[in-house]
């Protein structure tokens, strides 16, 4: 659990990015999800 193969280009990785604006500034959230192969 918790392993992300950064060296493997062929790894199936899903990526999401969100930007949230608040009264204090801008907050960026990035989510990387590694999908293990079958």
Automatic annotation (TrEMBL):
GO CC list: cytosolic small ribosomal subunit
GO BP terms: translation
Pfam families: Ribosomal_S3_C
Domain Small ribosomal subunit protein uS3 C-terminal: 1-33
UniProt keyword terms in alphabetical order: Chloroplast, Plastid, Ribonucleoprotein, Ribosomal protein
An example Gene Ontology molecular-function term: structural constituent of ribosome
Superkingdom of the organism of origin: Eukaryota
Extent of the signal sequence: none
Family (UniProt): Belongs to the universal ribosomal protein uS3 family.
Protein name as it appears in the record: Ribosomal protein S3
Gene: rps3
